[in-house]
C-alpha cells in the first residue's frame, strides 16, 4: 500500500514538473517564433507570456505562473521592472480586491451569513409554502454568495439543506433535496458576481478597463446582474418542477425551530455594526454612479477617493472602532481571509492585457480583423448571445478567470469595430463565466458539486445542463435589453 502511494506521488510530481516546463517554454520561448502579420515581435512575446500563464493556471496552479509572467514581461523591454510592479500590484483594482477580501472575511467571521439565511427562511410568509420557501432560500444563497463568496455560502446552505431534508424525511435520490442542494451551489456561484467588487468581476472588468481606458458603469451592471439572478432562479425552479415533479408535501409542516435552534435568532452589537458597514459599503460605492454630476461635498469626496479609497476608509474605521475592548477588524487575523491566488491572477493579468492592447503588439489590428466580420454581420443582441454562449461552454472546462480575460479581448475588438455599447457584452461574460458546474475543472464550486453524494453524477447531468442553458439565455436576454 505504501509503495503504491509512493508511486502515485512520484507520478504526480513528474506530471507537475512536465507541465511546469511546458508553461515556462511557452512563456519564454513563444516569442522566438516568426511573427504572423499583423502581430509584431513584441506581440508574439506578449502572446507567449499570456498563453504560458493560462497553461500554468490550468495545469499547474495560480501563484508561480502569475509571478513568472511578470518576470517574463520585464524581459520584453516593453516596460521597466518598476513599471511592471506599479501596473500589477500597484493597480487600483488589485488593491481594491485585497481590501474587499478583508471586508467580506469580517462579515463571515462574525457569523452573519448563517443568521441572515436562517432569519430569511423562517418568516411566516415563507413557511408552509414550499415553492416560496425554496425561492427565498435560493435568493438568500445568491445574496450571501455576493457579500462573501460561493464556497462558504455553499457550506452554510448545504448544512441547512441537510437539516431540512432530515426534518422532512427526504433521502438521497429524492428530487427535492437534489433541486435544493444543486440549486444552492448554482445560485451561490451566480450570486458571486452581484457585487461588482468581487474577484472575478474585478478581474474581468479590470481587464476590459485596461483595454478600453474606461470602466463599466456600476448602476447598469447591478441592475442587470440582480434582475438576471432573480430570473435565473425563477426559471431554474420552473424547469426543475417540470423535469422532476418533486413531492414537497412534507415541507408544509416544516418546524422552524429545527433551523433556528433553542436560542432563537439574535444579533449581538458587533454583528449589527458589521451589517451596518456592509450597507454603507454598497451605498457609498454606488452613490457616485447614480449622481455623476453632483457637486455635493459628500458625493465629491467619494468620487475623489474612488471605490478603492471607499473600501480602505471603511476597513480603517472598522479597525479603529472598538467594541467590548476589541477592534471590529483584527487586521492581522483578517488578512488570513485574503484569497492570494485571486490577487496574483489579477496582478499578472492587467499588465499583460495592457501590453496586448498596445498598437505596437499588433493585437488590436488582429482582433479587429477576426471580430469585425462577426460583429458587423450580426446584430449587437446576437453578438451578446454568442459571447455568452462561448463563456458558458468554455468555463465548464477551464478556470473562469482566464476565460473571462480571453473573451474581454473579443468584446473590446467588437466594440471598437462597430461602436457597440460594451455593457451588455461585458456583464454577460462576467455572469456566464460563473456558470461552471458540470466538470470539476470549471471551478471550486463545480468540484464541490461533483463530489456531493446527494447530487451524484447521473442526476447532475440531468439537472445541470438545464440550469446552465436556461441561465445563459436569461442572462444574455436581460443584458441585451438593459445594456445595449
Walk me through this protein's architecture.
74% of the residues lie in helices and 1% in strands. It is mainly α. A two-stranded antiparallel ribbon has the order 1-2. Helix 10 (199-212) packs parallel to helix 19. The chain is globular.
Please write out the topology.
Blueprint: H1 2-29, H2 41-59, H3 63-75, H4 81-88, H5 92-109, H6 112-121, H7 130-147, H8 150-168, H9 175-191, H10 199-212, H11 218-244, H12 257-260, H13 269-290, H14 297-320, E1 322-323, E2 326-327, H15 331-334, H16 340-357, H17 363-377, H18 380-395, H19 400-418, H20 422-432, H21 444-450, H22 457-483
Helix pairs in contact: 1-2, 1-3, 2-3, 2-16, 3-4, 3-16, 5-14, 5-16, 6-7, 6-8, 7-8, 7-9, 7-11, 8-9, 9-11, 9-21, 9-22, 10-16, 10-19, 10-20, 11-20, 11-22, 13-14, 17-19, 18-19, 18-20, 18-22, 19-20, 20-22
Beta-strand percentage?
Answer: under 5%
| Radius of gyration, whole Å | 23 Å
- Biggest β-sheet: strands ordered side by side in the sheet: 1-2
First CA to last CA: what distance?
61 Å
Largest sheet: 2 strands, antiparallel
Which whole number gives the mean pLDDT?
A: 86
Helix content: over 70%
- Total beta strands: 2
Q: Can you write the helix and strand succession as a string? A: HHHHHHHHHHHHHHEEHHHHHHHH
Helical stretch tally: 22
Taking pLDDT < 50 over at least 5 consecutive residues as the criterion, the unreliable ranges are none
Overall shape: it is globular
Structural class: mainly alpha
Domain Citrate transporter-like: 58-429
Organism: Hungatella effluvii
Family: Belongs to the SLC13A/DASS transporter (TC 2.A.47) family. NADC subfamily.
Transmembrane segments: 16-34, 46-73, 94-119, 131-164, 176-198, 218-239, 273-291, 297-323, 335-354, 374-394, 401-419, 425-448, 460-482
Amino acid at each position: 500500500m505504501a509503495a503504491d502511494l509512493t508511486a502515485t506521488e512520484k507520478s504526480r510530481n513528474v506530471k507537475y514538473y512536465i507541465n511546469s516546463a511546458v508553461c515556462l517554454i511557452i512563456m519564454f520561448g513563444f516569442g522566438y517564433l516568426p511573427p504572423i502579420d499583423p502581430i509584431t515581435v513584441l506581440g508574439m512575446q506578449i502572446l507567449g507570456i499570456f498563453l504560458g500563464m493560462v497553461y500554468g493556471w490550468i495545469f499547474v496552479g495560480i501563484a508561480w505562473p502569475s509571478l513568472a509572467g511578470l518576470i517574463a514581461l520585464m524581459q520584453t523591454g516593453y516596460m521597466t521592472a518598476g513599471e511592471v510592479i506599479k501596473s500589477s500590484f500597484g493597480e487600483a483594482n488589485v488593491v481594491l480586491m485585497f481590501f474587499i477580501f478583508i471586508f467580506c472575511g469580517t462579515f463571515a467571521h462574525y457569523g452573519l451569513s448563517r443568521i441572515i439565511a436562517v432569519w430569511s427562511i423562517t418568516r411566516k410568509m415563507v413557511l408552509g409554502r414550499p415553492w416560496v420557501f425554496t425561492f427565498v432560500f435560493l435568493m438568500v444563497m445568491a445574496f450571501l454568495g455576493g457579500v462573501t463568496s460561493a464556497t462558504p455560502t455553499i457550506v452554510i446552505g448545504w448544512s441547512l439543506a441537510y437539516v431540512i431534508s432530515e426534518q422532512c424525511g427526504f433521502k438521497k435520490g429524492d428530487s427535492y433535496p437534489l433541486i435544493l442542494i444543486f440549486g444552492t451551489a448554482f445560485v451561490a456561484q451566480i450570486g458571486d458576481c452581484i457585487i461588482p467588487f468581487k474577484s472575478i468581476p474585478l478581474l474581468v472588468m479590470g481587464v476590459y478597463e485596461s483595454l478600453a481606458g474606461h470602466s463599466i458603469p456600476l448602476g447598469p451592471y447591478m441592475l442587470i446582474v440582480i434582475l438576471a439572478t432573480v430570473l435565473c432562479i425563477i426559471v431554474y425552479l420552473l424547469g426543475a418542477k417540470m423535469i422532476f415533479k418533486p413531492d414537497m408535501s412534507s415541507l408544509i409542516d416544516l418546524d422552524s425551530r429545527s433551523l433556528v435552534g433553542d436560542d432563537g435568532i439574535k444579533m449581538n452589537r458587533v454583528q449589527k455594526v458589521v451589517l451596518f458597514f456592509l450597507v454603507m459599503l454598497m451605498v457609498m460605492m454606488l452613490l457616485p454612479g447614480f449622481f455623476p454630476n453632483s457637486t455635493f461635498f459628500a458625493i465629491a469626496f467619494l468620487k475623489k477617493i474612488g471605490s478603492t479609497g471607499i473600501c480602505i476608509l471603511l476597513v480603517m474605521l472598522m479597525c479603529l472602532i472598538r467594541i467590548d475592548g476589541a477592534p471590529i477588524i483584527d487586521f492581522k487575523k483578517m488578512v488570513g481571509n485574503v484569497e492570494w491566488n485571486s490577487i496574483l491572477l489579477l496582478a499578472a493579468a492587467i499588465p499583460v492585457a495592457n501590453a496586448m492592447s498596445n498598437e505596437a503588439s499588433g493585437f488590436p489590428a488582429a482582433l479587429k480583423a477576426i471580430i469585425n466580420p462577426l460583429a458587423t454581420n450580426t446584430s449587437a443582441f446576437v453578438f451578446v448571445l454568442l459571447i455568452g454562449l462561448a463563456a458558458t461552454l468554455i468555463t465548464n472546462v477551464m478556470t473562469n478567470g482566464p476565460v473571462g480575460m480571453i473573451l474581454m479581448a473579443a468584446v473590446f475588438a467588437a466594440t471598437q469595430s462597430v461602436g457597440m455599447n460594451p455593457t451588455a457584452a461585458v456583464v454577460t461574460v462576467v455572469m456566464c463565466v460563473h456558470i461552471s458546474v458540470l466538470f470539476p475543472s470549471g471551478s471550486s464550486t463545480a468540484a464541490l458539486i461533483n463530489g456531493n453524494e446527494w447530487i451524484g453524477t447521473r442526476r447532475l447531468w440531468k439537472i445541470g445542463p438545464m440550469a446552465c442553458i436556461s441561465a445563459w439565455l436569461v442572462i444574455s436576454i436581460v443584458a441585451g435589453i438593459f445594456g445595449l
